[in-house]
Design goal:
six-stranded mixed β-sheet, 15 strands, Neutral Protease, domain 2, five-stranded antiparallel β-sheet, 3 domains, disordered C terminus, 472 residues, Elastase, domain 1, disordered N terminus
């Protein structure tokens, strides 16, 4: 077993999953009792992953050598339908294939992604420092997702009706591992436009891993994310269509793909961390348009430019669409020339989706929240009934006294102090536990209701009532 090199975790959670919550929410409302139970179970588990901050770093550091491999190093584990990670090792680096197709798909997909970053960008694993890649298959029972948890890849088997095994799509593996690349480079805040860029960048390099593995040029590619996940009978082609956002699926159980194709249809929402999986369709389409216009192997043109920006010194964790778009134009100009076909194609692509060009300032002001209007998430668990409640809210939507109190607490470091004062184990049975997350102020705190000042606990309770619920 291998240890981790330190990697900076993104705000809210290190857990980034391929199936967005809004899709699973649609399944819970579709009327099929069995599928509803599976979707609710997946949603509940994903919520726990987002709000429970765990780390296996210490365990791995104590049990194996430091990472820093100069060649690909993979370890595949089997959770045997439990949720204990990493599980039992079933295939180590260099070992022959096993009879388990999921094990072999995970092994090959991790290798394809490692080889892509190594041979295309001369990057030594996803962290650039030779990180060993770990994957766990058969996670949970009928678990409808796959995720990167900041340490490793995890794959569910799917429910067998809507989703099959999550190891079947190499672009899904490339997508999730690219969250690790972003985690160790730009570390984009996982909400609103920065979060949508975070998701889009994972789609971009996930689809490029697939294209290079299949030997496809930009015009030969399908530009689909998760095309191998949907089961026969599902009315859809994939989870997302990068070239034609909003058209990937239209199924009575999954709903209709909600992704917008341009800024005129940007979705204002406080769910899904401000629409990170929804609005990623806009930069996705910009990349696909640029790549197909340039032609040839997409990783050599637009892909190289996106990588230059992601790993460059100009991008910040709060980067919005317009800033990222201009950075790609600048990077293309620097690499290929100001009047090059690459720079022209990238500039035109961002103009087509409404991020650059006329009306950009108005579009940004209408869609990107001001720095003084941050998104705050509050979750409460525990208590006698054990019910989990969670809500998100923008401070400007709260009554003035509460909004002012929130701003004062967030700006003073108070939540970090409250977290430090919380006991490791509550001395009071059925104590409420709260989680407060606000990426704009770098707050992600777990708090004990028993040790919070009364006025702070009351503020959290009012916010749970005032905010938009994200988990019922």
């Amino acid at each position: 077993m291998t240890s981790r090199n330190p990697m900076t975790h993104p705000p809210f959670s290190t857990c980034c999953s391929i199936v967005p919550p809004y899709l699973l929410d649609a399944v819970t409302r579709a009327g099929d009792t069995d599928l509803k139970a599976v979707a609710e179970q997946t949603l509940h588990h994903d919520h726990e992953l987002r709000t429970t901050r765990t780390s296996t770093t210490a365990t791995r550091a104590a049990s194996g050598p430091q990472d820093g491999y100069t060649t690909v190093h993979r370890d595949i584990y089997d959770a045997a339908n439990s949720t204990t990670l990493p599980g039992s090792e079933v295939r180590a680096e260099g070992a022959p294939p096993t009879p388990d197709v999921a094990v072999n798909e995970a092994y090959d997909g991790l290798g394809d992604t490692w080889t892509f970053y190594d041979q295309v960008f001369n990057r030594n694993s996803i962290d650039g420092r030779g990180l060993g890649l770990i994957g766990t298959v058969h996670y949970g029972r009928r678990y409808d997702n796959a995720f990167w948890n900041g340490e490793q890849m995890v794959f569910g088997d799917g429910d067998g009706t809507l989703f099959g095994r999550f190891t079947a799509s190499v672009d899904v593996i490339g997508h999730e591992l690219t969250h690790g690349v972003t985690q160790s480079t730009a570390n984009l805040v996982y909400s609103d436009q920065p979060g949508a860029l975070n998701e889009s960048i994972s789609d971009v390099f996930g689809v490029l891993v697939k294209q290079r593995t299949l030997g496809q040029t930009a015009d030969q590619a399908d530009w689909l994310i998760g095309a191998g996940l949907l089961m026969p009978g599902v009315q859809g082609r994939a989870l997302r269509d990068m070239l034609h956002p909003g058209t990937a699926y239209d199924d009575p159980r999954l709903g209709k793909d909600p992704q917008p194709a341009d800024m005129a249809h940007y979705v204002q929402t406080t769910s899904d961390n401000g629409g990170v999986h929804i609005n990623s369709g806009i930069p996705n389409r910009a990349f696909a348009l640029a790549a197909t216009t340039i032609g040839g192997e997409a990783w050599k043109g637009a892909g190289q430019v996106w990588y230059d920006v992601l790993t460059g010194s100009q991008i910040t964790a709060q980067c919005d669409f317009a800033t990222f778009a201009q950075l790609t134009v600048d990077a293309a100009t620097s690499r290929f020339g100001a009047s090059s076909p690459q720079a022209d194609a990238i500039r035109q692509a961002w103009t087509t989706v409404g991020v650059l060009g006329g009306g950009t300032a108005a579009t940004r002001s209408a869609t990107q929240p001001a720095a003084s209007d941050p998104l705050v998430r509050v979750a409460r668990s525990g208590g006698f009934a054990g019910v989990v409640r969670e809500a998100t809210v923008r401070l400007a939507d709260l009554p003035d006294p509460d909004a002012a109190t929130w701003r004062s607490l967030l700006g003073s470091g108070a939540f970090q102090e409250f977290e430090a004062a919380a006991p490791a184990e509550s001395p009071v049975r059925d104590d409420f536990c709260y989680t407060v997350s606000c990426p704009a102020h770098d707050v992600d705190a777990s708090l004990s209701g028993q040790t919070l000042p009364d006025h702070v606990r009351d503020l959290l309770e009012r916010t749970l009532t005032s905010g938009r619920p994200t988990v019922e």
